[in-house]
Each structure stands twice: as C-alpha cells, then as structure tokens.
Amino acid sequence: MHATGYNNVTKVGALTGQAIVSFPPPTIGSYQSPFTASFAVDNNWSGKGSFSVGDNT
C-alpha cells in the first residue's frame, strides 16, 4: 500500500499471486490460477477497486 496525497484518494494498493479455484460439480479437484487486485481508497477506507482470477474480472 502506498500513500498518494492526491485529493480524496489517499491510499492505493495492488496484489498479485495465485488463487486456488475449484472445478464446478460434478467434477472433483482444483487448480491454481493467476490472481491480481488493485484498489484506491480515502482515509475512511471507502473507495473502488477490482480483482481478477484467471480470465475473470
């Protein structure tokens, strides 16, 4: 997380890694998929962001 000092957006952050995704029933098992997330918030932790797992955002 980083401080911005830019108007109401005072903090930004980003994450990357791997997420464990389960296959839908009736299939059994799971796999790892790339995960990314980012956000921008004010001092009250109110803000916007997004995240992606694999091809889903």
pLDDT under 50 segments (min length 5)? Answer: none
Radius of gyration, in angstroms, nearest whole number? 16 Å
Overall spatial form:
elongated
Sheet with the most strands? 4 strands, antiparallel
Q: How would you characterize this protein structure?
A:
Helix content is 0%, strand content 67%. With 57 residues, the chain is mostly beta strands. The protein is built from no helices and 4 strands. The chain has a 4-stranded antiparallel sheet, with no helix packed on it.
List the keywords.
single chain; about 55 residues; mainly beta; 4-stranded antiparallel beta sheet
Task: Please write out the topology.
Elements: E1 2-6, E2 9-22, E3 30-41, E4 47-53
Antiparallel strand pairs: 1-2, 2-3, 3-4
Summarize the structure in short.
The protein has no helices and four strands. By secondary structure, the chain is mostly beta strands. A four-stranded antiparallel β-sheet has the order 1-2-3-4, with no helix packed on it.
